[in-house]
Structure formats: structure tokens, C-alpha cells
Design brief:
Length: about 260
């Protein structure tokens, strides 16, 4: 049904007085030997039920990257499903395909893809926690993957200091596991098999959020680096969307942050 509405559950950051003095943080699950008096995180989450999510299927043309912060574009790939086991082929073929597509669509001077994740949902997820050695799981909480600070850090690390104006370009794909599909939001999201009915991506219209009320900046601690992102608090004014039955040639492109300070969800 074109333009249908579904209800779902989304996990948000709980508000806390702790954040008046310091940022929320979390230690990545891959750091499995964490010990000492410092907790692995300093925040809690709450699951909000019955959140309406609008299906954009059949009205994709009504949503634009410039106005709504996301869009659906067509991208065909020479990659077969099995090719995504080959990291070299991902770098040589797939990243080139995605980069070329974004270069044309965004009318950009340069595109740099600095990270690729293949997500395979464990059959027991989300009823089991993500653990070290487990394939990357869907992100169960509402978040924005990048901030101006974290993107400037990446630009410096990659030696791209000439990029004074930027759009967050991080690529995350999805993979098929146990007849299920997974994915999390970044600047592009595309399933490796379709149609997607299990764990489709939900996107929040950035025009419906209030950064002062809805955002808390969060430090995600990895083994050798700390990346800042944004965790969302719930408010009833937020407008959520998804693309039902997403196919591999349908790539979602959406903004995380840019050099002008514009954010997306």
C-alpha cells in the first residue's frame, strides 16, 4: 500500500542530570577486556512503543536531500552477494561504485569513503547483546553518526585539510543473514539482497527535531580512538520514515552533518 503507516519501537537516550556536568560515553563491545572502576557507559536508554513511521514507497519523489536531508537514488552494482566476503573487492569495486554515484548525485568536487561495515544480524538479536567477535549488529538506538568535531578529526587523520567544506561521507551497507536483513543509518544505506522486510532502516526528518532539546553529544570509545556522535531523546514531534521492501538498487542517501552545521538524523 502506497504511503502506509506502521507503528514500531525505537530506543532513545534517557535524560539525566549527569549530562549537565559531562557527556554520555560508552566503551565499544570489541574492547572485551575492560576492567577497573570506570563503568562501560554512563547512560541508560528507554524503548518507546507505538511510534508512527511513514512508508515513503510510491512517494519517494516528494523527499529531497536538500529539504528533508534524505533521498532515494538508483545505484546498480557489479558486486555479487558473495563478493562482500572479499575486502579487497569491496575497496576496489564497491567503494568506487558508491563514490562515483555520490560524486554525480551531490555534484561534489571529491568523495572520500573512509569506512565500510557489513552488518549481519545474529538470529537472536536484539534478544542477545552484541559481543566481541560477533558481526556488526543493527544499531538499536536513535542516533546521528557524526558531528562537526568527529568529521574534522577524520579529515585531519586522512590528510584532507584542504576540505574546508564537507558533507559527512561514511558508507555502511547491509547484509543478509538467517533470511533477515539489517542496516543502520549513515550517509548511504543499501541492502545486499532484497526486498528488505526485517529491520528496515528508519530515518527521522531533521526538520522535526529540536537540537537543543533532543540532542546529547556522546563519546564512543574504540580501541585506539574516540568518536563523537549524537544520541537522541524522544519527543512526539519527531517524524519518522522508512522505505518498505527496499531493493539493492535503491540506495538511501542522507545527511549526518556538514560544514555549515546542518545536521540530519
Amino acid at each position: 500500500m502506497v504511503g502506509s503507516m506502521v507503528s514500531t519501537q525505537i530506543t532513545f537516550l534517557n535524560r539525566s542530570k549527569v549530562f549537565q556536568k559531562g557527556k554520555p560515553y560508552s566503551i565499544d563491545p570489541e574492547i572485551d577486556d575492560w576492567s577497573g572502576d570506570v563503568a562501560r557507559s554512563n547512560f541508560s536508554r528507554n524503548r518507546v512503543d507505538n511510534i508512527p513511521v511513514s512508508d515513503i514507497r510510491g512517494k519517494e519523489h516528494l523527499f529531497s536531500f536538500e529539504k528533508h536531508g534524505f533521498a532515494v537514488i538508483e545505484m546498480h552494482s557489479a558486486m555479487e552477494y558473495e563478493d562482500f566476503e572479499d575486502s579487497q573487492r569491496i575497496d576496489d569495486v564497491y567503494c568506487h561504485e558508491v563514490g562515483s554515484c555520490l560524486l554525480k548525485y551531490l555534484d561534489a568536487a571529491e568523495v572520500h569513503i573512509f569506512d565500510v561495515n557489513i552488518r549481519r544480524r545474529h538470529p537472536d538479536y536484539p534478544f542477545t547483546e552484541a559481543k566481541s567477535g560477533m558481526p556488526v549488529q543493527p544499531a538499536a538506538r536513535a542516533h546521528i553518526d557524526g558531528t562537526q568535531k568527529s568529521m574534522k578529526d577524520v579529515i585531519d587523520e586522512l590528510g584532507l585539510s584542504h576540505c574546508k567544506r564537507f558533507l559527512y561521507v561514511k558508507y555502511v551497507s547491509a547484509s543478509h543473514s538467517c533470511v533477515r536483513y539489517t542496516g543502520t543509518p549513515n550517509i548511504t544505506w543499501r541492502p545486499l539482497k532484497g526486498p528488505v522486510y526485517d529491520w528496515p532502516l528508519a530515518i527521522c526528518d531533521p526538520n522535526s527535531v529540536d537540537p537543543a532539546r533532543d540532542f546529547d553529544y556522546h563519546d564512543h570509545v574504540y580501541g585506539n580512538v574516540v568518536r563523537e556522535n549524537i544520541l537522541l531523546h524522544y519527543n512526539a514531534d519527531q517524524r519518522w520514515h522508512y522505505l518498505s521492501g527496499q531493493m539493492p538498487f535503491e540506495m538511501l542517501v542522507f545527511r549526518q552533518v556538514d560544514s555549515e552545521g546542518t545536521t540530519g538524523v
